[in-house]
Amino acid sequence: MRLFQKLRRRGSPAASSGSSNYAYVTARVRAMKSNLLPNETYPRLINMDLDEITRFIEETQYKQDVDELARKFKGVDLIEHALNRNLAVTFSKMIDISEGELNYLITEYLKNYDIWDIKTILRGKYYNATLEEIKDNLVSAGQFKYNFLSELAEKESYENVIDALSNTDYYPILKNYDGTNLPEIENQLDTLYYQRLFNAIGTPKSSDRKLFSKLIRTEIDIKNIKTMFRMKKEGVEDGELEDLVLDGGLRFSLKEINKMIPLPFADFINSLEKYPYWEAMSDLVTPDMESLVDLETSLTKYTIKSAASFSHAYPLSIVPIMDYMISKKNEVNNLRIITRGKAANLDEDIIKNQLVI
Amino acid sequence: MGTKDVKPTRSELIELKKKIKLSQSGHKLLKMKRDGLILEFFEILNKAKGVRNELDDAYDNATEKIGIAEAVEGRMVIKSTALALKEGPVISLESHNIMGVVVPKIEASSVHKSINKRGYGILGTSSCIDETVDSYEILVDKIILAAEIETTMKRLLEDIEKTKRRVNALEFKVIPEMQEAMDFIRFRLDEMERENTFRLKRIKA
Lengths: 357, 205
Prior knowledge:
The complex is a heterodimer of chains A (about 350) and B (about 200). Chain A has 20 helices and no strands. Chain A is mostly helical and about 350 residues long. The longest helix of chain A is centred in the first third of the chain and has 28 residues, at about 100-125. The two termini of chain A are about 35 Å apart. Chain B is mainly alpha-helical and about 200 residues long. A two-stranded antiparallel sheet of chain B has the order 1-2. In chain B, β1 and β2 form a beta hairpin. In chain B, α1 (about 10-70) runs antiparallel to α3. Chains A and B meet through α6, α7, α12, α13 and α18 of A and α1, α2 and α3 of B.
């Protein structure tokens, strides 16, 4: 069946055209979702020591990844690489089994991994990092396969990397990289990701697509809130902040954001009270807050929980597929938070606070 | 200086008197220097204790922050982000003088960078990374300060020890030996004077 699906997809002229195979993919996703760890696993893991957690992870779906990477990595690094590898394989599978418009939407959604890998390679070239250092930090969970990313990493210079990407959507941005303006290029790539995602949604007509749109646009809002908090707390000039806000949010229009940007920090916080995201922030934000970590975690939890809340609404749509991808990513994050947290001797409360259960 | 090596002459006596006077004033000056250095040392010791505590706190904070960042974002993300910044802080080393002791003055520039000058993009990173970078910048500052103060303290201690040895040598060895030699010369000169007087009296008789 899978071979048949692949052959059919190869025959399709463009990723966004052709009929989507929602029924097939959602059935596969339902099966894959049953492999996800139940929420009650995490409190149990917090009470285990690191060796017990490692043994537990080796008995789950991550076993094969752990075994294959065991020659290269050890300890917590092995767990983290195995988790990322499993995530990459799972997400690549989602791209491989989907067709038509569904494939287009999933690919667009996962392009943040491609962007991440491009950034890692450019940073590596900028720093003159070794090939091993660059390759170890790549996660091929997007459209780019690991072999292609390896070839990119092997290029002599950043110019060669950019040339090799000349057929991609990233090239118009990457061609402006002169070896000194990496932060701007990184920000533009991330902005492009959200722009493309927003364009991919288009004007949703069906109810399931409206939910998908809501999910993506909520993510854009949350990103904008996080960016505004970070930049305002650091006292960065308003002009620079304006360049970083993303268009297409659900609750925040660019006009509203531009009104918020010049506000002093305390007034900026007050201006957020009328938005639904306030419930996730109200206990954490104060004009003299020192850390934004808990706020960011709370906002991330809000995004994930709001996605999960409507995941059962339309069984044969993009919604349960997105919910699975978000849940899978969350599982990997939670396992990493516990293992890394334990390895760093972090307080149990800090670990619990960061988990999204 | 053993008394056997001393020539019991008047010129030697004058010479010794001069040397004793010089040694005594040197001894007084060195004692003052030692006391001054000790005072300076205790001042710096208090400062060093404070800086060491601040350094320990900064280290604990940075370790916790990177622990959280590695847990939340993953070590791969942290490593990749770290590659975005190539330039380290510029450290300049100068020296200044405390009572003849040359101590270092370490100054660092470009340790603290604003969020938009750290080499990584804002949209693809999180506040975990910002706070980790902040905590390590503070740690670098504290390390530089601690290095300056602790090196100063070490140099002062070495010099206090050296000055103390000199003071003791002057007080318990050099000056007493010279005084002994001076007493010997005086005694010998008096003896010679008495011998001369006796000899003259015998000739007269």
